[in-house]
Amino acid sequence: MDEAIAVVGLTKVYGEGQRGVTPVKAVDQISFTVRRGETFGFLGPNGAGKTTTINILTTLLPPTGGTARVMGHDVVTDAYGVREEIGIVPEISNIYEELSAWGNLMFTGRLYGVSRGERERQAEELLRAFGLWEKRDVLSAGFSKGMKRRLCLAMGLMHRPHVLFLDEPTSGLDVQSVLVIREMIRRLRSEGVTIFLTTHNIEEASQSCDRVAFINYGQLAAVDSPENLKAAFTGMQSVEVAFIGGDAEAAGLDALPGVREVRRSGDKWRLYTDVPAQVIPAVVDCARACHLTIASLNTLGPSLEEVFVKMTGITPPARPADALPGNGQGRQGAGQRRLG
Amino acid sequence: MNKTHWWGRLRHEAERAWIIAEKDIRIYYAKPPVIMWGIALPFFMFLSWSVGRNRPAGALIPGLVAITVFFTASSIGPVVIPWEKRVRTFERLLTAPVSLPAILLGKTLAGVVFGLAVAIVPLLVGLLLGARVSDPVGLIVGLALSSGAFASLGVLFSTIPGPNVGSVMMPATLIRWPLLFISGVFVPLTALAWWGKALAYLSPLTYANDIIQRTMGGDGYLMPVLDMGALLVFWAVFLLAGLRLHEAGRQRGL
């Protein structure tokens, strides 16, 4: 068995068969596999079906149709087997605030049948790794959000699970907590733990995940490695340029041949094009004509976030201030066009 | 331990139920809603009923013990479970290798321990006021079975959908009060009309009050075996009904 998670035709309909309730299909016939030791990103906008899928895989919710197996155990017929194999770190840190960090880990260890000696060894190791050892006897109600998150992750690892479900692991945390958690994810990965990660931080998924899946309206839009997904969207290439001095807004970058759209990001201008080789000399000529000095000039492929936006059809909010004034048409075009 | 064998599995589940009960005892006994709904309310209600009545204080103690156990043990479920659902720690239990029956049994056991512990207070007060215990073993068994039945009633109450503890406790209390008045605590069973008695037999508090009265030197109306058997049946029925409703809620994603 090479797969840690195998999902075939998984479907979940809420409200089916309930009187007075309109059924809602949250997950619609999705199929994918996660290999053992793989870090798998599961991405999608709010309401896309991510949480429902995770709840099914973690046995919290029964599916309406299809099958899902975790480490060979069926989530419906062998939920017990699934639960012994998985660790879960939900988006909301569900620790017992009335217990200390040590008390939380001891309770979790006992619940999973970890022997006393092993419990204490594992708890000390995890608390030290997560920078909580000094606070082990403090009630966790007084912990910061980042400390609670670290403790929640430690609780998810107490029984050394083979598959770890991480829901938004670093969302809204302080830098120290983010670094500690990222380091732990790297370590788990090197130890061969399969990680199922959902996050809104798409660049984080791009850097951490071997493969990602995009889900939208309950259906899978794509499953592949981040680089393969980016490579499939050659039409989303761009030229990024930064200038020193002069008025770049008046330079008419959006009117250059081959430029489809121009967006400003900080002190840089990003020119979206299908033909970067044609745009680069045009930018150099334009800079010379407008007495602008080029500080940097790069060609870029699409980011995973751009691929995500393209595939899920999300419309970013209009940002007219980012668009160049140009000939008027450019301003309107940049402001109103959907990304991708 | 071989968990595939039925005995190993049963032991495993029983151990997990006790681990959950221990955790609940450590965490939730000092929660304000438990104190308010479980201890303060029955205490003041009993005072309002007993003050000015022309009966020796010791004679009122069995009723006070019964009411206290009823309110305390049945408060754990509707306080703890909605609380844990709100802060998502209930999910932690549901995704651990432990069955839903064991989780709910753990919550019930926590209620049993709570009910027994709190019953000691009115008992001690009663002994100081002249009440006596004629059958200590029977009293302990009766209190344990009563606490079990009431705690599993609390687990059943906890299936009432609601966003917070208050929205579950209010309807739970609306059900508990009528039970209180039909159970022979305030008006003895012997003084009830036939239809009053028929109603009283539907309440677990009737049997709890009867066995506590009898083991504290009073006159019981029913046979002790019948009281204990009925309390056991109520315990099982409430727990199974709670289990079914929790499972139905899980199917709907609640």
Question: Main traits of this protein?
Answer:
heterodimer; A: 340 residues; alpha/beta; Rossmann fold; Alpha-Beta Plaits; 2 domains; 6-stranded mixed β-sheet; 14 strands; 33% helix; globular; B: mainly alpha; 0% strand
Detailed description of the structure:
The complex is a heterodimer of chains A (340) and B (254). Chain A has 11 helices and 14 strands. Chain A is an alpha/beta fold and 340 residues long. Chain A has 2 domains: 35-52 and 76-218, Rossmann fold (3-Layer(aba) Sandwich); 233-336, 2-Layer Sandwich (Alpha-Beta Plaits), CATH 3.30.70. In chain A, the strands form 3 sheets. Chain A has a 6-stranded mixed beta sheet. Chain A has a 4-stranded antiparallel beta sheet with strand order 2-1-4-5, with helices on one face. Mean pLDDT of chain A is 85; it is low at 319-340. Chain B has 254 residues and is an all-alpha fold. Chain B has one domain. Chain B is globular.
Overall geometry of chain A = globular
Number of domains of chain A: 2
Based on the structure given, which CATH architecture of the largest domain in chain A is correct? 3-Layer(aba) Sandwich
State the largest interface. A-B, 31 and 24 residues
**SSE order of chain A, one letter for each helix or strand:** EEEHEEHEHHHEHEHEEHEEEHEHH
CATH class wording of the largest domain in chain A: Alpha Beta
Structure in a nutshell:
Chain A is α/β, with parallel strands linked by helices. Helices cover 33% and strands 27% of the residues of chain A.
Layout: helices, strands, pairs:
The complex is a heterodimer of chains A (340) and B (254).
Chain A: E1 3-14, E2 24-35, E3 39-43, H1 50-57, E4 65-70, E5 73-74, H2 79-85, E6 86-89, H3 101-111, H4 116-129, H5 145-157, E7 163-167, H6 175-190, E8 194-198, H7 202-208, E9 211-216, E10 219-224, H8 226-231, E11 238-244, E12 259-265, E13 268-273, H9 276-289, E14 293-300, H10 304-312, H11 329-336
Parallel strand pairs in A: 3-8, 3-9, 6-7, 7-8
Antiparallel strand pairs in A: 1-2, 1-4, 4-5, 9-10, 11-13, 11-14, 12-13
Helix pairs in contact in A: 3-4, 3-5, 5-6
Chain B: H1 6-28, H2 32-50, H3 57-86, H4 89-94, H5 100-128, H6 136-157, H7 165-181, H8 194-200, H9 204-215, H10 224-251
Helix pairs in contact in B: 1-5, 2-3, 3-5, 3-6, 3-7, 3-9, 5-6, 5-10, 6-9, 6-10, 9-10
